[in-house]
Amino acid sequence: MILSGHEIQRQVESAAITVTPFDSALINPNSIDLTLDDTLLRYRDPVIDPRVEPEVVEERIPADGLVLEPMSFCLGSSREIVGSTEYVPMVHAKSSTARAGLFVHVTADLIDIGSIGTITFQLFSTLALRVYPGMRIGQMTFWKPQGEITLYSGKYQGSKGPRKSEIFRDPYWETLAR
Known about the structure:
The protein has about 180 residues and is mostly beta strands.
């Protein structure tokens, strides 16, 4: 069951859903918009080795915007701290942003129940596109789970700002090295 926009607002007000800062103007019929913060991360390594911590460069988005070049990839984050211990959040791109050539969070839309922090957006620009701090870049829906709940306690818990991949921390690398 997906929550309506009105129900999302009620659940934020009751503290069952975290959205900080909360702006009721961002509520849609069945989602809440997420806005882009002012920091991007870009990978420095020409080849990413998932067993090695990647190097990144941090870049600020000025108030007058920053152009993302065609076919470029970077990481951004939501201004909002979001999550829930009662509902499963899912991140989606805004259709208006996608129609301007920016793929947002294409492959990692499911947020684990209990994960609370900023959302790291994977941004892939197919066209030259100017982005601005505070622009509506994504939206989040909330779904009611069924069954026993185990809350997320993983490596991205409490994220603040964009987070690079931490796949190198995954314990299965030890078993693959044998």
